[in-house]
Amino acid sequence: MEAHLTEWLNLGIRWIHMITGIAWIGASFYFVWLENNLNRSNPREGLSGDLWAIHGGGIYHLEKYKLAPPKMPDNLHWFKWEAYFTWLSGVALMLVVYYLNPSAYLIKPGVDLAPEMAIVIGFGSMIAGYVAYHFLCDSALGKRPALLGAVLFVLLIAAAYGFSQIFSGRAAYIHVGAIIGTIMVGNVFFTIMPAQRALVKAIEDNTTPDPRLPAKGLLRSRHNNYFTLPVLFIMISNHFPSTYGSQYNWLILAGIAILAVLVRHYFNTRHASNKFAWTLPAAALGMLCLAYVTAPVRPAPSSAPVAATSSPQASTATLAKVEAIGAAQAPEASATAADGADFAKVNQVIQERCAVCHSAQPSSPMFSAAPAGLMLDTPQQIQQQAAKIHAQSVASQIMPLGNITQMTQEERELIGAWIAQGAQIN
Fold first, then answer.
1. If residue 58 lies in a helix (H) or strand (E), which one and from where to where?
2. What would the mean pLDDT of 399-419 be, rounded to a whole number?
3. 332-335, long-range: CB within 8 Å, 24+ apart, which pairs?
4. How far is the C-alpha of 185 from the C-alpha of 98, rounded, in Å?
5. 401: pLDDT confidence band, cut at 50, 70 and 90?
6. Is-contact 130 183, C-beta < 8 A?
7. Which three-class secondary structure state does DSSP give residue 12?
8. Are the CB atoms for 243 and 294 separated by under 8 Å?
9. What sign has the CA pseudo-torsion 272, 276, 281, 285?
10. Computed from CA positions of residues 284, 289, 290, 291, in that sequence, does the dihedral angle turn out positive or negative?
C-alpha cells in the first residue's frame, strides 16, 4: 500500500508541477512576444507602443506605458503565483522521487556517499546556484549579456559534470534543472516583483518612479525566457535514457542546451529580421548529430554459444520461478540444446535482476505495479522488450535503479550477446 500511495503522491505533485509550469512558461513566451511586437511608431503620449491582436473570435488592443500610467487602475493583474507554485511543486516532486529513496534514485551506483550528504549537496546546489547567478548579474559582467551568458553556461555544465560523478544520470539532469528553476523563481521573487511593487507604490504616492528597477526586472525576465527550453528538456529527459544514461551525459546536456537557446533566440528576434533563421535547421541538424553519436554500439552477431555466467546471489525463490517458466514452455520447445541453455541463463538473470520490479506483481516494496507498464514475467514479454532491455541495462546501464539488485557486468554482457544473436527464446 505504501508504494501505491507514493505513486499517487508522485502523480498529484507532477500534475500540479506540469500545470503551473505551463502557465508560467506560457506567460513568459507571451509577454516576450508582446514586448517584441509592439508598434513603436508614433505612439500616443506616455506610451512606448501598442499592439492589436485577434484571438478566440475577439479583437484586443494592448498598450504599454513608457513607465507607468498617471493613475493606477482598479484591477491590476500580477503574474507571480505560476512561478512560485512551479518551484514549490518541483521541490516537492524532487523530495518524493529522489530524496525519499536516495540509494535507488539519487546516488550513482558504486559511489560511497551518505544519503544525507547527497541530499544536502542536491538542495544546497540550488541555493548556491542562485547566489552565484545574482552576484554575476550585479557585477560588471552583468553589463555584457553575451559574456554573462557564456559564463553561466560554463558554470551550469560544470555543475552537470560534477553531479554526474556522484548522482545517477536522471538525478544529475534534474538537479541542473533545479538550479535553473531556482534562478528563475529567484528572479521573480527577488528582482521582478520588488521592481513592480516599487513602480506601483511610486504611482500611488504620486512620485516619479525609478526607471532602473523596471529595466532590471525586464532584463531578468529575458533571462528567464532563455532558460525555459533547456528546463523543458530536462523535465522530459527521464524518458530518454540515451541522453542521461550516457557516460557523456553532461556533454549531451550541453549540446541540447545550446540548441535550445539558439531556437529561443530566433523566436525572440524574428520580429526585427530573420537573420537568425539559420538556427532552426542548425538545431535540427544538431539533434541528428546527437542521435548519431549516442547510438549504442551493439556487439557483432556470433554463431558461437553465449557464454554462461552463474549468479551466486540467486535466491531459491528466483530459481523456482525460472524453473516454473521453463516448465510452462517445455511443450512448445523446438530449439537446440545450446540455444535453450543460452536463453535459460538470460531468463534467470532477468528474473532475478529485473522482474523484481518489472512484473505483474512486483516483489520490490518500491512499486505496486510494473514501472511504465513494462513486465518481464514470460519469455515472450522478454523477447518483445529486448530493445528496451538492451538500451537500459546493456547500453546505458541505468537499470536496475541504483543497481539495487546488483546486476554484474558479466550479466549485462550475457544479455547483450543474446540480443545480438537475435533474442531467440526457442
1. strand 58-65
2. 91
3. 332/426, 333/426, 334/426, 335/424, 335/426
4. 21
5. confident
6. yes
7. helix
8. yes
9. negative
10. positive
At residue 209 the predicted structure's pLDDT band, cuts being 50, 70 and 90, is confident
State the alpha helices, DSSP H only, in 167-297. Answer: 169-186, 193-204, 212-236, 241-244, 249-269, 279-293
Widest Cα–Cα separation across the chain: 92
C-alpha cell read off for 184: 528563475
d(CA 327, CA 317): 15
Q: At 297, phi and psi to the nearest 5?
A: -95, 115
What's the CA gap between 198 and 323, in Å, rounded? Answer: 74
With bands split at pLDDT 50, 70 and 90, how would you rate the model's confidence at 370? confident
What span, in angstroms and rounded, lies between the C-alpha atoms of 419 and 298? 9
Per-residue CA distances from 339 to 222, 329, 331, 355 (Å): 61, 14, 16, 22
Contact 177, 160 (CB under 8 A): no
pLDDT in tens, 138-177: 999 999 999 999 999 999 999 999 999 999 999 999 999 9
Whether the Cβ atoms of residue 91 and residue 83 lie closer than 8 Å to each other: no
The pTM of this model reads: 0.82
| φ, ψ of residue 61 in degrees (nearest 5) | -125, 115
Note whether 399 and 334 are within 8 A (CB): no
Q: Which residue has the cell 544473436?
A: 421
pLDDT band (50, 70, 90) for residue 324: very low
Grid cell in block for residue 304? 558461437
Hey, is 367 helix, strand or coil?
coil
Write down the number of H helices and E strands in the chain: 16, 2
Triad 62, 65, 66: Cα angle to 5°: 140
Closest by Cα among 418, 388, 402, 355 to 242: 388
